[in-house]
Design goal:
globular; alpha/beta; 8-stranded parallel β-sheet; binds zinc ion; 17% strand; 43% helix; 8 strands
Length: 253
């Protein structure tokens, strides 16, 4: 059977309350051997850790989503206390989201900088979430050296791919690929080198076609892999084995 990985999901979210055991079981039987459940603030990252401690196939990250950036002062200490807990693989998701602006731009920049500095200090990779803010993001990123990580939920253009690759980051692609109508986006998905590609569901969000309208789960990674295999002209077995070794390279799992 194919061995797939879900590098970005939120198994600890309320959508799955009381159903986590089934979620993980179904994912494993769909070939998804490793899942990273991603924290979005201190309390949420603690929940992510709880799930990771309970299930051998689940790892977690701790971070402050740009939507929650306004919680930085309140959450700092609790986020730091998660570093050193077994199965923490990354800091994030963090970044800039100027589409929704649930936190102000200033708050988002402060939270992003703080998390990059924590990651560098503890030699951890970073999970980046950037929406409608590429131009503002790169100068911040480039003011540091030695950042490793993944640019999650990628929906940009060919030139955005080039910007990301120039910084040595991995690129996370999710179910959006299966239903986007934008040819520029599809073109960008085609040129991502396989050794820089990460598969993710971002569950419970962004359910891939043809399951639109249902709550997303890690088991659906297979649908994204099949779609990308066809789009990129790659064998599913190659896509599975290289993306699985990519996660080993970045998250050390
Ligand atoms: Zn995100
Ligand atoms: Zn997410």
């Amino acid at each position: 059977m194919l061995e797939l990985v879900d590098t970005h999901c939120h198994i600890h979210f309320p959508e799955y309350q009381g159903k986590v055991e089934d979620y993980v079981k179904v994912a494993i039987s769909a070939g998804v051997a490793k899942m990273v459940t991603v924290g979005t603030n201190a309390k949420d990252s603690q929940k992510a850790s709880d799930v990771a401690q309970e299930y051998p196939n689940v790892w977690f990250s701790a971070g402050l989503h740009p939507h929650d950036a306004k919680k930085l002062l309140a959450d700092k200490a609790d986020l730091l206390s998660l570093i050193g807990i077994p199965k923490l693989v990354a800091i994030g998701e963090c970044g800039l989201d100027y589409y929704y602006l649930h936190s102000s731009k200033e708050e988002q920049v402060l939270a992003l900088r703080w998390q990059i500095e924590v990651a560098l200090e503890h030699k951890l990779p970073v999970i980046f979430h950037v929406r409608d803010a590429f131009k503002e993001f790169w100068p911040i990123f480039d003011s540091y050296q030695g950042i490793t990580g993944v640019f999650h939920c990628f929906t940009g253009s060919v030139s955005d791919v080039e910007e990301i690759l120039a910084r040595g980051l991995y690129i996370g692609v999710n179910g959006i690929a299966t239903f986007t109508k934008k040819s520029e986006q599809l073109q960008a998905y085609k040129i991502i080198p396989l050794n820089k590609l990460m598969l993710e569901t971002d569950a419970p969000f962004l359910t891939p076609a043809p399951l639109r309208g249902t709550i997303n789960e890690s088991k659906n990674i297979a649908l994204i892999a099949e779609f990308l295999g066809e789009l990129r002209g790659e064998k599913l077995s190659d896509l599975a084995s290289v993306t699985t070794s990519n996660i080993r390279g970045l998250f050390n799992i």
